[in-house]
């Protein structure tokens, strides 16, 4: 809070002009590519192998090539154009992958590790032949599966593993035919708020991201003008976009480091929470959506935009919205629990694994909290350790 109040630059807060990945990370990708960085997508890291002691460098990296590129393509181009803005897709660009149509039909999800691995697709990179230095930017909850040897050799790594905690999260995004005001929200112009509606506090952070609608891929005509002012003429154009998120309680039977989650079960859990939130919470903050009673509120599902052909009515319209359970180790949110900061690892330590450099909001980066700013500062500290650039005093806030 002191940082926010006293050290902000330009404005106290900024509203996104498009989605986070497209405004923040697509430009980083494009700059790195222009600087000569080679990207090899669809390669899963299986493990890092150190030498005999913590003072030895990383000697091998095991990878798994998930899929081949189509035809004679040398590289995968990940971005696609949305109204002039290079954007990250929510699914792979299948036409760039070998047998892409069949892969898409199969429902494969490359972000979720496969249980069965084809030995012929495993790749081993060796120190001195394939690499000299290693930048490890994978999030902390995934590291016990990938860096077992490092934890065995280093007490510092074991303390980090035991004290830097993470949590699952859940997310819901709703596209509505009516504005927040038309649905009964009295505070127009408030871009974000939070609320509580039951003991579990599910999906209790609400962000009004309606400003992003013009940058989304809607192709219908939203507004017609007449003497009475603007009026909606196409219900397929959203008038409100609402993001909801919160922590998702861990399953005590499942390790936070478990690679092979029951994805269908996790999605169903978030869907059930989303339905409950709509009925019990949105009918409070958007009272015009209540088609039940005050004692037994019931959300008006017809208010949701459903662009699917032959869109259903009623509760099934929830399935046209964005629902996500972030439960994979790489997706878990990094917490700042009391006493954990001193156990965060620095970007580099000459005494242990000297060719290894670390980046991510789980490292020590000055802010030491799970956010985009922390991840960026960590990346800059990693670059400083590896290359001497940028100078430390150019990393705003790190020595606050």
Structure report:
It is a single chain. The model is unreliable at 223-233 (pLDDT under 50). A hairpin with a 7-residue loop joins strand 1 and strand 2 (58-65). Strands 7, 8, 9, 12, 13 and 14 form a six-stranded antiparallel β-sheet that branches. The chain has a three-stranded antiparallel β-sheet with strand order 1-2-5. The two termini are 13 Å apart. It is an alpha+beta fold. The chain has helices at residues 2-6, 20-34, 100-106, 143-146, 148-153, 155-163, 263-285, 372-387, and strands spanning 43-50, 58-65, 80-82, 85-87, 122-126, 134-136, 166-176, 192-194, 205-208, 223-226, 229-232, 240-248, 322-326, 333-334, 356-358. It contains eight helices and 15 strands. The protein folds into two domains: 38-66 and 110-164 and 338-394, 3-Layer(bba) Sandwich (FAD/NAD(P)-binding domain), CATH 3.50.50; 166-326, no CATH class.
């Amino acid at each position: 809070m002191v940082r926010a109040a006293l050290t902000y630059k330009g404005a106290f807060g900024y509203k996104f002009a498009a989605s986070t990945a497209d405004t923040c990370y697509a430009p980083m990708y494009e700059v790195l590519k222009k600087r000569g960085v080679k990207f090899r997508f669809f390669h899963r890291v299986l493990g890092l192998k150190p030498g005999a002691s913590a003072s030895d460098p990383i000697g091998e990296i095991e990878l798994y090539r998930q899929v081949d590129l189509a035809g004679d393509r040398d590289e995968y181009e990940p971005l696609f154009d949305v109204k002039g803005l290079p954007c990250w897709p929510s699914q792979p660009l299948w036409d760039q992958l070998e047998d892409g149509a069949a892969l898409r039909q199969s429902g494969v999800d490359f972000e979720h590790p496969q249980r069965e691995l084809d030995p012929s697709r495993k790749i081993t990179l060796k120190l001195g032949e394939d690499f000299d230095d290693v930048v490890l930017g994978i999030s902390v909850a995934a590291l016990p599966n990938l860096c077992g040897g490092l934890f065995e050799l280093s007490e510092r790594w074991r303390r980090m593993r035991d004290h830097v905690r993470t949590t699952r999260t859940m997310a819901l995004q709703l596209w509505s035919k009516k504005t927040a005001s038309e649905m009964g929200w009295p505070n127009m112009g408030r871009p974000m708020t939070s609320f509580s509606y039951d003991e579990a506090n599910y999906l209790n952070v609400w962000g009004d991201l309606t400003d992003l609608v013009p940058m989304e891929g809607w192709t219908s005509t939203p507004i017609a003008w007449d003497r009475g002012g603007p009026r909606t003429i196409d219900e397929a154009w959203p008038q409100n976009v609402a993001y909801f998120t919160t922590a998702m309680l861990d399953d005590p039977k499942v390790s936070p480091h478990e690679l092979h989650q029951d994805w269908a079960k996790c999605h169903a859990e978030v869907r059930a929470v989303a339905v409950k939130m709509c009925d019990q919470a949105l009918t409070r903050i958007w009272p015009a959506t209540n088609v039940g009673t005050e004692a037994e509120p019931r959300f008006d599902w017809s208010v949701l935009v459903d662009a699917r052909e032959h869109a259903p009515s009623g509760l099934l319209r929830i399935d046209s919205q964005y629902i996500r359970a972030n439960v994979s180790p790489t997706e878990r949110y990094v917490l700042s629990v009391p006493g954990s900061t001193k156990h965060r690892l620095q970007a580099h330590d000459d005494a242990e694994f000297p060719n290894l450099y670390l980046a991510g909001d789980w490292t020590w980066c000055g802010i030491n909290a799970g956010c985009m700013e922390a991840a960026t500062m960590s990346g800059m500290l990693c670059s400083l350790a590896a290359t001497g650039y940028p100078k430390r005093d150019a990393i705003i806030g790190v020595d606050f």
